[in-house]
Amino acid sequence: ITFIVPYAAGGGSDARSRQIAQRMSALLKQPIIVDNKAGAGGNIGTEFIAKAAPDGYTIGMGNFAPLSVNKTLFGNLRYDPEKDLMPIVLIEKGPLVLVVNTNSPFKTINDIVKAAKAKPGALTFSSGGIGGTHQLSAELFKQSAGIDMIHVPYKSGSAALTDLMAGNVNMMFTQMYSAIPNIQAGKLRPIAITSRVRSTLLPNVPTFIEIGYPKVEVLNWQGLIAPKGTPRAIVEKLNSVANQVLKDPVVREQIISQNNEVGGGTPEEFAALIKSESAKWSSVIKAA
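User: That's the sequence. What structure does it adopt?
Assistant: Structure tokens below.
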């Protein structure tokens, strides 16, 4: 079985994919080869899955942007997330945290909003590419606060974070797994988190909701997908095995330790999440 990851090696999606693939391989007693096909905001790898033979031998990680954002953002995808892909199971979902360099003068959301309103278009925020949760969280914040900031996209989230720590951009919405080690090392200062409630990992960091921005609730998510037309029996088999993997204590601990919520459930439940997220973000993208 070939397991497609639509992002570069070394990132969060790649690491989780390899962890899941390894354990699924053991349960299925079938070799699973992880193949990174990065580029175009996840579109290249996701299109490869969509156009593969629907026989269960090509599956992959379906992510937030290529499944629920890019159709609206790019407008000319060579695959249709709804028509060409089959959701298998949600793997995980989790919030992002807005961070600044520790040398930054910004200590609160109000500091950022005040500075942005004083000099519209002067502040910058980095991201791992156009259309991902890094950028869209910031766009949602901009709309909610009525401010203007400049988006600086990079080829990866790690590159965007590195430049933030170097002081070349003002801020970034990033995933917890990349934020926590750098916060603990004193390289980043957390400002606010996009979850509904505070994180146990960052108990002193407020949510956007409690600060007064109730719309800025964002979860980054990913799950297994296959080409549309994959036989139901195969989808159910893969779903069953993936749910077994998600009960593994080591897998659960790694997901939870990054302040993410363990996924699982049925293909229909994952499909419903994709549909609801598509509706939410299409309106944000059009407004931006």
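The chain has a mean pLDDT of 95.
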